[in-house]
Every structure is written in C-alpha cells, then in structure tokens.
Amino acid sequence: MILIKNCRIIVNEKVFLKNILVKNGKIVKISNKEAFADKIIDAKNNFVLPGLIDCHVHFREPGLTHKEDFLTGSMAAAKGGITTILDMPNTTPPTTTIGALEEKRKIAAKSVVNYGLVFGAANDNLAEIKKAKNIAAVKLYMDYTTGDLKVDDFEYIADVFKASKLTVIHAEGENVKNAVEAFSKSKTKNRIHFAHISSEKELDYAKNSKVRKQVTAEVAPHHLFMNENDLQRLGAFAEMKPRLKTENDQKALWEGIKNGSVDTIGSDHAPHLIEEKEQGNYPFGVPGVETMLPLLLDAFNNNKITLREIMKLCCENPAKIFKIKNKGFLKEGFDADLAIVDLDKRQAVRNDDLLTKCKWSPYEGKILKGWPVTTIVNGNVVYDNGGVVDVKAREVQYAR
Ligand code: DOR
Ligand code: ZN
Q1: Which residue of the set 54, 87, 263, 268 is catalytic?
Q2: Which of 205, 277, 295, 392 could, after both became Cys, cross-link 177 (CB 3.0–4.6 A)?
Q3: Which ligand is nearest to the CA of 241?
Q4: CA-to-CA distance for 375 and 51, rounded, in angstroms?
Q5: What digits encode the pLDDT tens for the residues 164-202?
Q6: What is the pLDDT of residues 8-56, one digit of tens each?
C-alpha cells in the first residue's frame, strides 16, 4: 500500500485536497483519511493530474535506435508527466505485419511508461490489419513523411476505414478533406482521428462535415507554441510534417481548444539527431515528450488554457477515443498513473537536461513556469525531481 498525501485534485470542476491510496498499482481510495501504508509520498499540496496519455510518439524501435529507443523515449516521457504512450508504426521494419507487431511488442517491454502500439496501413496489408490484435488504432499516411507508408488509392483507403475500428490519419491540407470524403463515402460506423491538425482549414475540414460525430482531431504542441516565424531562427530544427503554419492558423488551433473542436494534444515526439538535422536533406520532426506538459502548464500560468482543458485533452479524451481501459481519470479502481505538477516551478528548457537520445529541443532556452515533479506509473515512482527509476511498465488494453 502506498499513500500519496496532500494531493490537490480536480473533481467535477472543483478543487479538493485529498489523499490517494494505492494498492497493487491501482487507486483504491481517494479520501481525507490517512490510511496505514508501507510507503508515503507527500505531494506537498501540488496538483496531481491523471498521468498523461500521449497518443502520438515515435520511439524509433526497431531499426532507428540511433535516434531513440523504448527505454530512452519512455524515460523522457516519464520526465514529462506522461504515463502512457501510443507508438507509431513508421519504424524499420514498419509495423505493418503481424510479425512486426509481435516483434515490437517484445521490444516495447523495456518501456518505463505504459504503451500501446499503432499498426500501419501499407498498400497491400488489409488481411494483416484484420488480424491485428490489441492495437490502439491503424495509422494511415496520406502524405509523405519519415518512413515509406504513403497510401494513395482512395478505394483502398475506404477499405482501411471499413476494416479498422479507429484509423489515425496523417493528412495535410486538402487531403484532410479528401480523407473525410472517402470516410463518408465508405458509410462505415468506425471512426477516424486526425493526427497533428496544423491549420484553420484542416481543422475546419476535419470537424465540419456530416460525419463529424465519428471524427476526432489532435493537435501537436509545436503547432500551438510555434509558427512559421520560428523557422527563420531554427531552420531544420523546426521542420516537421505538417510544417509550421501562420500565426493565424496557430490562433485557430487555440480557438479549437477553447470551443471543443480539438479533442486531443499529442506530442508527435519525432526525434532525429542533430547531425541528421544539419545535413542538406534533413529528416522531418521534432522531439516533444519532455516539453509538452511543461509548455501546457506554462500556458496555464499565462491564462491560455485551464487545468481541466489539459486533463481533457491529454488524459480523458485520449483514453476515450482509443478506448484505453482504466486510464485517463483519477478514480477508484483505475490504474495509479499520476503526474504531480508544481505550477510555480520556473525552469528553462535545457538540451543538457533532456533524456531523449537526440538531446535537443526547439524550445531550448525557453523559461517555463509549471513543471511535472513526480511521475507515478502503475503505482511505481518512475520519475522524481530529475531522477528516473527503471521500473518496467506494461502494454495497455482496450475496451473493444
Ligand atoms: O515531422 C514528422 N516526423 N512528421 C511525421 O509525421 C513523422 C515524423 C517522424 O517519424 O519523423
Ligand atoms: Zn507522427
């Protein structure tokens, strides 16, 4: 039994000071009592959030482990208050066969945060998609990016929508509209989730159609906290797919957060080495698991977002959309995945402090107010004030 004392938590939009009792990795009691426990953790009146579910990371294993692997990526995630990640399929080999899925399952066991695996749609793997078990979703690439998974044939795309309960789509610009049209035509009861919506237009295409009830939208922190003006300063280090957009688009994404048309925030943690970014034909993507929550807490301190909105976008909605069992909420019976955050802590993002293998961040030097201080995964303290403990986590299960 572990007792986490003095937790400031939000229940039904109100703030309470409570103690959280944890047994066998689950929350068993949230109350004012000080139950007997073998171990006591003092949250010191800090806010305690459900551990974040980052529904979009690239941990690069297998095949690209010079950039990241499941241990370094997951340690970085834990440092960022994230307790569950969903890993994308554009590894080498890509996660587009049952064999590759089982292989990744074995590899991911080294993760210190809970994990789910996203299966990839290739041009010819419908049979494999239908066979894949316990996957978070199927990822469909309609535009070019890292990996070689672009699918162009709209009939085949409709078949993917019909075969997969949830398809996560990488589509840019007009392709968001094309995806919604193909989905609509397929007449399926399944759902689609747009990854990294980056512009006003994309958000509009995604969320204003007659199938909108079956469509959800994610935004990435880089599109919320940067815009195309940052490209001059950062060059390749701010180049990702989709690209940074105008200030107006950035504003539209924040409005989407306020009006509920944005459903999730996912880091799209896409690490590449500094040497790779310095080459002429640099790869696209920026790291993000360590900075997503600090950026959002800083935005909270600047009155741009509420803690409730952060909880909905980064904990509750990912759990609901991906139907992840027993996560996303601080509730009795749920997994003890928690992020203790110090809203007053001021600290600069420093490349030297980062745990990601790529060791750089587009936010280097930026002073942020509000940082995760302790991260608890399945009842185990995995991150505490700078230090990470290597306790293995597990694969998530889905309610479908
Ligand atoms: O910039 C990106 N990098 N966008 C993606 O969609 C993929 C990612 C990567 O894997 O590097
Ligand atoms: Zn991605």
Answers
A1: 268
A2: 205
A3: 1
A4: 7
A5: 999 999 999 999 999 999 999 999 999 999 999 999 999
A6: 999 989 999 999 999 999 999 999 998 889 999 999 999 999 999 999 9
Q: 88 C-alpha to center of ligand 2: Å?
A: 7
Domains of the chain: 2-48+334-343+369-388 (2.30.40.10), 51-321 (3.20.20.140)
CA separation for the pair 218, 196 (Å, rounded): 5
Is 268 considered catalytic here?
Answer: yes
DSSP conformational letter for 316: I
Alpha-helical regions (H) of 66-225: 70-79, 98-108, 126-131, 154-163, 174-186, 200-207, 221-225
CA 344 → CA 119, 249, 340, distances in Å?
A: 39, 30, 12
Ramachandran sector of residue 253 (left: φ over 0; alpha: ψ -120 to 50; beta: rest): alpha
Work out the angle at residue 45's Cα, subtended by the Cα atoms of residues 39 and 49, and round it to the nearest 5 degrees: 80
Question: Which atom of ligand 1 approaches the CA of 283 most closely?
Answer: 11
Q: Indicate the pTM of the whole model.
A: 0.98
The Å distance, Cα 268 to ligand 2 centre, comes to: 5
Burial tier of 117 (Cβ tally within 10 Å: 0-12, 13-18, 19+): buried
Q: Cβ atoms within 10 A of the Cβ of 247, count? A: 10
Q: Which residues pair with 22 in a beta bridge?
A: 2, 27
Of the candidates 66, 81, 67, 89, which has an alpha carbon nearest to the alpha carbon of residue 113?
A: 81
The tokens for 336 are 């003890």
Give pLDDT, residue 147: 87
String of b and e for 58-86 (b: at least 16 CB within 10 Å)?
bbbbbebbebbbbbbbbbbbbbbbbbbbb
Mark 390-399 as b/e (b = at least 16 C-beta within 10 Å).
Answer: eebbbebebe
Q: Which of 59, 169, 194, 240 for mutating ligand 1's site (highest number of atoms within 8 Å of CB)?
A: 240
